[in-house]
């Protein structure tokens, strides 16, 4: 391995371009060796000025480009499986944006393929695990000071949804973060999901079921509720309150400066995830680069975590469409994820 880890970034859209910037300017010990996007202009805009960085319209070609030692996948979910399989075949360590795959069957194929490759090569980009507030909440819950957790109340609001967003993606793409965060915070699996459907906002595109109210039941009897509202129109808000036997703890309150004037009191509200979770993305990528340089991403959110999130999301989508409570059924866990 060279002085700085050579990373190929696949996908140069919102997340990919931001990860290129992060690898180039924020994270030490890494350099961008290749950028791939079928949209050549996007690849050029993200990586065209970086010394030693080759540009590609074919993602698999980027895996074989000179100096590539690791891969960051930021293409749409539909493209993750081919890219991850390409990494597994070549033994390349990889950080893949969430969701791992568009459906649970694809996610399971990936867990089986990684297990067959002989060891863990991939992490999934559930960046909330690297957010200082989420980490503080986990430390508090793990420490047991508040007693056993009984409920998590979660809020997840976006200003607006991208044009391709479907009602199913509110769960499969957005709530996938709460699914992973709840499993990680509580150390429990999710056994069943019920999705309730309030009337939709007039500000959502025609036919989009927005907001939705997701209720998850864990193996230990904790109830996790999530308000997902992706066309709130006013801000990006991610909150979580843990209610425990001996108290409660809340994260994600708007922590900007409070300004008082003749017009009243006010505070800026983050408008997107790149602002709200800037530090989490930096820490996520910094930690991954350090782990790869030290020999491999043996910890962090795994392909199995990505698979479980997909199964829970699929149960949620079934509940969204039927109105029924849907149990979660997981495949046997391959030994590498023990
Ligand atoms: N962790 C987080 O908070 C967030 C994660 N994401 C995830 O990041 C991924 C990308 O999302 P965005 O950047 O918002 O999408 P985007 O649509 O802005 O960018 C995706 C880019 O991938 C390119 N692309 C399409 N097929 C490709 C392929 N086969 N190989 C390489 N590139 C390909 C597209 O041309 C486009 O430039 C998704 O998995 C999404 O769920 C997105 C937003 C936030
Ligand atoms: O991952 C993300 C997006 O894909 C998703 O669409 C948003 O709802 C989330 O807030 C963001 O973190």
TrEMBL record:
SUPFAM superfamilies: Glyceraldehyde-3-phosphate dehydrogenase-like, C-terminal domain, NAD(P)-binding Rossmann-fold domains
EC number(s) stated in the UniProt entry for this protein: 1.1.1.18
Transmembrane segments: none
Record domain Gfo/Idh/MocA-like oxidoreductase N-terminal: where: 6-121
Keyword Mitochondrion assigned: no
KW Hydrolase (keyword) present: no
Gfo/Idh/MocA-like oxidoreductase C-terminal domain boundaries: 138-328
Catalytic activity from the UniProt record: myo-inositol + NAD(+) = scyllo-inosose + NADH + H(+)
Source species, domain of life: Bacteria
Keywords, alphabetical: NAD, Oxidoreductase
Database matches in Pfam families: GFO_IDH_MocA (PF01408), GFO_IDH_MocA_C (PF02894)
Family per similarity comment: Belongs to the Gfo/Idh/MocA family.
Subunit structure: Homotetramer.
PANTHER family on file: INOSITOL 2-DEHYDROGENASE, PTHR43593
Purpose: Involved in the oxidation of myo-inositol (MI) to 2-keto-myo-inositol (2KMI or 2-inosose).
Protein name, per record: Inositol 2-dehydrogenase
Organism: Streptomyces evansiae
